[in-house]
């Protein structure tokens, strides 16, 4: 029998204002482990709701916040920007600039607090998953709440390991979570040399992790409205996420 999901629009008080969000959970009595679902650069939209709702159907209370609340409410990329490459790139730059590393960690704390305070969320360990742009935010969320976040996954995350002093991989010493990285092939935002450098950093870190490349899957392959959506590899990614959460949150 298919699990019925409750989908509730909520607002979260943040240090920088109010973040709109959607909260998904199985219908019925009980409590559920909390998971933060961080969208790609396209923000909250129908396909991301489908992805978060599918995860909730596995038995989780899933919070999907508008990570770009400082800049816009959904749709964060409108039809005009989608139709023009120039406008789309300009909009992506605006959204990215509105969410620097320190803001990511500040917001992560508020999202975790929301889940902790909700009566239907199980006490204790939580997980986080980020897609594309938000892969880095998933890492920073785990770093911001090392006593809470025990599982963090990134799928086709970009710029996870760079030479910048704010590179996400530099947050590894503060992370106390099991990590999973699913990389795309030929990804300009995470090329082979960056993957290798990240893997070396993960090995030196010493925590439990997996980092693998999905052959034939290009950047944003997990998202159904992506032009490079790869259903078989998207299903594999979902299985790996489900396994990670089952083994850490139950």
3D structure, described in words:
The chain is α/β, with parallel strands linked by helices. Helices cover 36% and strands 24% of the residues. The protein is built from seven helices and eight strands; from the N terminus they run E-E-E-H-E-H-H-H-E-H-E-E-H-E-H. It has helices spanning 46-56, 79-83, 85-97, 101-117, 135-144, 192-205, 231-249, and strands at residues 5-14, 17-26, 32-38, 61-65, 121-131, 149-155, 178-183, 209-213. It has an eight-stranded mixed β-sheet, with helices on both faces. A hairpin with a 2-residue loop joins strand 1 (5-14) and strand 2 (17-26). Helix 4 packs across helix 5.
Give the arrangement of secondary structure elements.
Elements: E1 5-14, E2 17-26, E3 32-38, H1 46-56, E4 61-65, H2 79-83, H3 85-97, H4 101-117, E5 121-131, H5 135-144, E6 149-155, E7 178-183, H6 192-205, E8 209-213, H7 231-249
Parallel strand pairs: 3-4, 3-5, 5-6, 6-7, 7-8
Antiparallel strand pairs: 1-2, 2-4
Strand order of the largest sheet: 1-2-4-3-5-6-7-8
Q: Which structural category do the helix and sheet elements fall into?
A: alpha/beta
Q: What does the main sheet amount to?
A: 8 strands, mixed
Helix content: 25-40%
Poorly predicted tracts of residues: none
Ends distance: 22 Å
What would the principal axes of the Cα set say about the shape? globular
Strand content: 15-25%
Radius of gyration: 17 Å
Order of helices and strands: EEEHEHHHEHEEHEH
Number of helices: 7
Mean pLDDT: 96
Total beta-strand segments? 8
């Amino acid at each position: 029998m298919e699990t019925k999901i409750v989908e509730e629009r909520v607002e979260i008080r943040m240090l920088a204002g109010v973040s709109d969000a959607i909260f998904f959970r199985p219908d019925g009595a009980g409590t559920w482990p909390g998971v933060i679902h961080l969208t790609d650069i396209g923000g909250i939209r129908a396909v991301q709701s489908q992805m978060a709702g599918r995860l909730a159907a596995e038995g989780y209370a899933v919070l999907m916040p508008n990570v770009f609340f400082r800049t816009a409410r959904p749709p964060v990329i409108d039809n005009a920007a989608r139709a023009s490459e120039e406008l789309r790139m300009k909009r992506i730059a605006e959204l990215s600039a509105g969410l620097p590393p320190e803001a990511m960690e500040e917001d992560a704390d508020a999202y975790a607090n929301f889940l902790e305070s909700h009566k239907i969320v199980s006490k204790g360990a939580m997980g986080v998953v980020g897609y594309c742009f938000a892969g880095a935010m998933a890492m920073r969320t785990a770093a911001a709440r090392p006593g809470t976040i025990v599982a963090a996954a990134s799928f086709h995350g970009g710029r996870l390991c760079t030479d910048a002093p704010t590179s996400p991989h530099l947050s590894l010493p503060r992370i106390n979570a099991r990590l999973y990285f699913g990389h795309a092939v030929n990804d300009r935002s995470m090329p082979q040399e960056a993957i290798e450098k990240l893997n070396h950093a993960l090995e030196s870190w010493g925590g439990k992790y997996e980092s693998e490349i999905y052959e034939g899957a290009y950047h944003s392959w997990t998202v159904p409205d992506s032009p490079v959506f790869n259903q078989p590899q998207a299903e594999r990614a979902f299985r790996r996420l489900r396994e990670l959460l089952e083994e850490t949150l139950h």
